[in-house]
Amino acid sequence: MFKTLSARLFAPGILALGVLFGAPETAQAEEIKLTGPLAGAPAVRNMRLYRQGRVELSPNVSFTLLDEYRRQIIFGLRANYGVFDWLSVGVWGGVSTSLLGAHIDTDLTSDIQGVNAGRQCRGDSAPVQGDPGFIDCELTGVNLGSDFRNQVASLDWILAPQLTAVPFRGKLGLFNSLFVDSELYVFAGPAFVGLRQRPDCSEGSCTALSTFTTSATMAIAPTFGLGFSFFFNKWMAIGTEYRALPFAWNTGGFDVAGRGPSEQFPDGAISSADSQFKFNHLLSVSFNMYLPMDYKVTE
Amino acid sequence: MKYTPIGLLVAAALWAFPGTALAQEVEDTEETEAVEDEGDTEGVEAGDEEDVGLGDICEVDPEACPTLDMKKEAAKPLDETIFAVQQRFIIKKRRFELQPFWGFTLNDQFVSHHAPGLALNYYITEVLAVGINGQFFQPFNNDSAFNAQVRRAARVVVPLTEYQWSAALNFTYVPANGKFAGFQNFIFHYDAYVVGGIGALSTRPIPVVDPDNRNFDWQPNIAFNAGVGLKIFFNRWFAAVLEVRDYIFLDKIENTVVREDNPADTNGWYGPDALTNNVQAQLGVSVFIPFSFEYRLPKAGADTSGGAK
Fold it and tell me: Which residues of B touch A42 (CB under 8 A)?
């Protein structure tokens, strides 16, 4: 049996709205004080414990958002064990299309490479002093190799141990005919992120062609997010979730900082100063399986 | 003797209905509040009312006088069936929805177009609404630092666009309703909807290729939009809204080539139109007007008025 939303949790907000709209009594209309035989009864009776004591295995696909130069599709697996129905411990990990050899570049990457290729800065007929493209080649000598796509950073793999809390459990009616149990969960934990990005080089050495490549590195970052699961039977669900993975990295392999006040001007070197903080958003869809295949039910 | 079945029926009704009403909803009346304030005395009062009702039946037909032991009946385990969706928490049909919101750009790393907006919907049916919405972008366009970094590092100019305003006619369909129990302590209701429409979006290029000679005017473009949203109800007329909507339009962008012979010729300022997706997250609130409504059918033992009193 459900109790209706308790007004005491939203008292400050509802009070303010009441003042705004001149209808404070409406807030009181939502307040429910259960009396009679249901007084003291649990908020939810016969609740299905989808997580408690069960292992969740979720193959999933994640898509990066707001990518600057290269998009990633991450094929992953999430494994959780439900210590309680509202708390699970587990791990999420995955490998990206870049690691699998399929780069999905943005239009910006194509545009930059198109312009870069047209300049012929490092070709056999490279412009010399006095040619129209000479200045561009000189000014981009630290930032662009012969093929910009070779220096674009990629997110190769992620491994994230995490805690998952399920504060909200409910049900969803679709077209007034299909009803499924659902949950809204939040998760957080540390993430180990495998990257490939342009390696550091010191001032004077960054114009060498050998520096316009990427090398493997690892970042450690917090990760957190929230998601929905929709249960179709006792052991199967689909889910969608949003994940943030904030850390700093040099996505384009450019020299953008390191000199001047607050180090906001290029210094002719590639270093950690050129790494920019990104929030790194991901959206995932998953197919969830729960083992054992039967669940327990509360009183 | 002929009154016996009627008496039993009335007795059962008198016994059963008050319990159900208390389990579902409590009327926000002065009587109820008085009962709540009195705490332990409430049960006594309720019992007295039932005794009076049963007493009436006993006076009509002593043979029909029920002999229920109310304490034993109250101690029986409850096995009430709960339907997935009983009475809808909120009735939207024939109500207006006023929705102020703030839009956040999700897919433009060069210029963010965060902006306030306002939507007005009218629900023709419980699941279908028609409405309008608009946004005012002009003071809020923000040329990002990333854009300048790319220009400086690669000496590549990417055409930029800023927005002025938008307006659209929209249709909203609500296929999903649900509720969540929070911390097994309270519930809130929500619905999920899809929305789509057509309108206009006024834009102009930010001159970055030849800013000395080019100065663009605002021009409205036809814009289609489609999105999905989630509405979480705090009460029967107030909700929080999260929506993701894609505004799709043909954008007029700056020509990256400058006519050296006559750079001031406006015919050379524009490049080919570009199909643009302006994906926004819109966070706002919904206020349903009128605040109150009446359920068409009553829920057993429940208050049928749904809004502010």
Answer: 184
Q: How far is CA B209 from the centre of its chain?
A: 43
* Tens-place pLDDT, residues A169-201: 888 888 878 889 999 999 999 999 999 999 999
Q: Which residues 224-263 of B are in CB contact (within 8 Å) with A?
A: 234-238
What pLDDT, on a 0 to 100 scale, did the predictor assign at position B16? 42
pLDDT along chain B (309 residues), means of 10: 49 43 35 34 38 60 71 70 62 92 89 94 94 95 88 90 96 92 82 96 92 92 96 91 95 88 88 92 94 68 44
pLDDT attached to residue B51: 47
Least confident of A39-53, A54-68, A77-91, B107-121: A39-53
Report d(CA A138, CA A124) in Å as an integer. 16
Q: How far is CA B304 from the centre of its chain?
A: 22
CB spacing of A140 vs B149 below 8 angstroms:
no
Alpha-carbon distance of A62 to A73, in angstroms, equals 6
Say if the Cβ atoms of B179 and A252 lie within 8 Å. no
Q: Which residues contact A161 (CB under 8 A, 6 or more apart)?
A: A89, A90, A91, A189, A190
Please check whether residue A189 is in contact with residue A163, taking contact to mean a CB–CB distance below 8 angstroms. yes
Q: Which residue of B has its CA nearest to A65?
A: B107
DSSP-derived 3-state class of residue B49: helix
Q: Is B2 on the interface with A (CB under 8 A)?
A: no
Would you call B177 and A14 a contact, using CB atoms and an 8 Å cutoff?
no
What would the pLDDT profile of A232-248 be if each residue is shown by its tens digit?
999 999 999 999 999 99
Give the containing element (helix H, strand E) for B178: strand B160-182
Average pLDDT, stretch A34-56? Answer: 77
Tokens of B308: 């502010």
The phi and psi torsions of B152 (rounded to 5 degrees) equal: -75, -40
Concatenated DSSP letters of chain A: -PPP--GGGGHHHHHHHHHHHT-HHHHHHT-----GGGTT--SSSS-EESSBT-EEEEEEEEEE-S-SSEE-EEEEEEEEEESSSSEEEEEEEEEETTTTT--EE-HHHHHHHHHHHHHTTTSTT---TTSTTHHHHHHTTTT--S-GGGT--EEEEEEEEEEEEEEEEEEEEETTTEEEEEEEEEEEEEEEEEEEEPPPB-TTTTTSGGGSS-EEEEEEEEEEEEEEEEESSSSEEEEEEEEE--EEE-SS-----EESGGG-EE-SSBSGGG-EEE--EEEEEEEEEEESS--EE--
Q: Per-residue confidence at A47, pLDDT binned at 50, 70, 90?
A: confident
